[in-house]
Prior knowledge:
Elements: H1 2-51, E1 65-68, E2 80-87, E3 90-103, E4 106-115, E5 120-127, H2 179-197, H3 199-203
Antiparallel strand pairs: 1-2, 2-3, 3-4, 4-5
Amino acid sequence: MELLSSIRRNSLGLGIFAVLTAGLIAITHQLTKQTIQDNILDAQISAFNDILPADQYDNDLITDTAMLPADPLLGTTEATKIHIARKNGEVSGIIFDTTAPGGYNGNLDMLVAIDKNGIVTGSRVISHKETPGLGDKVDLKKSPWILGFASKSLGNPNIDGWNVKKDGGEFDQFTGATITPRAVVRAVKNTLIYFEQNKDALLAR
Length: 205
């Protein structure tokens, strides 16, 4: 009987502890939820400002968005979001969520910002699984290589120049790693081609 009583007391204690713990977690989640959302928003705005100068737009890039259907030029297999930059009410640029397929270890998720004249203002690889010390140099935290796309367009360089140097183009590859930079160069070029092919519709949004 004493054993059963002890088990009941311990079970009751554990039950109360579980309820209190769950309540504490729920309260903590509610108290920190807004802070987490604010931090994510700040990081997103910072990333946008890194690739699109803040003086080129006066609208809210976070909320001024549109969806594009899947397109091979964007490396997408489902609808993807664009962020629309406006200056005095007119579209001044587009930030594309695009994908670079064909990386050494899979796809690379990217942001590519293109102004209304078809010039890249900046690009970033935001997610990848490339090999540390080799392909991961596409990440700005590892190398400034990705900065080389700023101010580039389909005419600068010409279309043949939109390759890594090993393939006769103008963009550096990494020692021991050509596949990853090749995929990123191709993705930025294809995003520019998509912009050029859909320029009127994009700028009329």
